[in-house]
Every structure is written in C-alpha cells, then in structure tokens.
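Malonyl CoA-acyl carrier protein transacylase, pasting as requested.
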Amino acid sequence: MGKIAFVFSGQGAQKAGMGKDFYENNASVKELFARAEEIRPGTLQQCFEGTAEELKITENTQPCLYLADIAAAIALREEGIVPEAVAGFSLGEIPALAFAGAYSPEDGFRLACARGAAMGKAAKEHPASMVAVMKMENAQVEALAEKYPNVFPVNYNGPGQLVVAGKKDELDSFGKDVKEAGGRCLPVAVGGGFHSPFMDEASQEFAEALKAVDVKQPEMTVYSNYTTKPYTAEVRDLMEKQINHSLRWQESIENMAADGFDTFIEVGVGTTLKKLISRILPDSKVYAVSNMEEARQVAEEVR
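Structure tokens follow.
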C-alpha cells in the first residue's frame, strides 16, 4: 500500500442526519459540536433534522457540512488511521485545513459560517445555478460555454464531468446546446454560481473574515483546489481565491497519485468523491466514511 489521504466532502452532499452518529458515539466530536452550537445556535438541529430545502441554503449548508466532515476525520484518527495528506472539495477544504492544523477546529467552524454567509449573500445578489455536464470532453464544454457571457466552467470533477455555473436563461440555452452535442446536464444541489466571477464579492468578504483568525502553515500536506498542489505559506490567499476560481479536482487527485497516494478515504457525507476518484484513478483504493460503523470497518481494512 502507498500513502493514505483523507478527502473531505463538498457542498451538494448534505443531508439530514449528517454527523449525528459521530456526535452520539464519539466524545471528541460531541465536545466540538457543543462548542459549534454555542457559536451558531440551531446548527445541530439543522445537521440532524433539517429539511432538504433548509440544508440547500448556503448559509446553513456550509457550517453543517463542516461539522460532518471533520467529525468523520476525527473518528478515523481515533481509530488509528492518520493520513499523510488531505484535500477537500470546495467547502471541504475548510475542514481539511482545520484537520491539518492550519487553525483550530472551532475557528474552522467560524470560517465555514463566514464563508457560507458571504457566498449566500453573493448568490442572492447574483442569481445563478450550476449544472454538471456529462459525457463530453472538457474542451467541448468550454467551447460551448464561450458562446455565453454568463456561463463559466467551474468544477473539473473527473473524466466526462465538468460543472458549469451560469445565469438561468443562459444555462437553459447552454443545456440545449449540450444535448445537441450528445451530452447531458444534471442540476447540482447548491444555491448559487460558485467558483465563478459571481462570487468575486464573496471572496473579498471572506478575506476580511480570515483576518480575524489565527491562520498558519498546515502541519500536514493539504492539496489546494485552486493550484492543485500542496498549500504554501500563502494560506489565506489560496483560501480566498478558491471561492471565485475554478475547482480542479481531477488534476488535484492526479497530482496526489503522482506523489505516491493510492488510498483515499472520503470523510463526511455520501460517496460523491469516492465515485469521482474511482473514475480518475481506477486502480486506487477508495473508501467513504459517514458514520462510526464505516469508520471502524475502513480502519480495520486499511490497517
């Protein structure tokens, strides 16, 4: 076996009950969740019982998903599995950096709250949606998007899957172009046009929030969505730019593989990243952990 990496789930994976099993069965997680509830009252109710509509609201999604992600990572670490590197998909980069020691878990929660608020505000001011384009080459999707001033390729997820953000009327026309070209569009369960120029103001607002937090060089290698390579000393700068620039997940995972990583464990909610990585690196070992039973089973297998 090569090196192990944790990958932290991103927005769109959220669902009611996330993090609850860790909260009920892990003392460290319960303590962190209690502190988070003091910082943002009502968060645990949203995590454990929120409706799909409530959890789709960016201001709610990001704090809740942050807790679910880091809870799974903490549980795995207490089962004896310590990764050599981490990466996070969009919002997932916030708990990944916290887990890697760039700031405290509590400050990470504060940052998730600030990021969600900033992105939610920008989404209201610049209404947009996101769709995943399937069964087409990236260059084809990019060429179709160029026809529209407000459609942007944003998430380079994996082979045959590129997410675009755009204004609704232009996305509708773009979708027809995709269908005529033999592709398929699927809506993404998020509340705005993330990782695009629609988020420029959110990036600036988040930069201000970062000034209030003690942010340092991570103690563990963290691969950046923005550069696709390990974080440098410019942690704040990369965190800001991640919000309004393309997310290059496939290239990040390929760079991790080139650096010797062949075992990936998705921590948080669902199996979205597990599926993407399995397509990007068919020969890799990929797992997903979203409850204590899975944490114990994966720990046993990886050992």
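Note for the archive: The chain has two domains: 3-124+196-302, 129-187.
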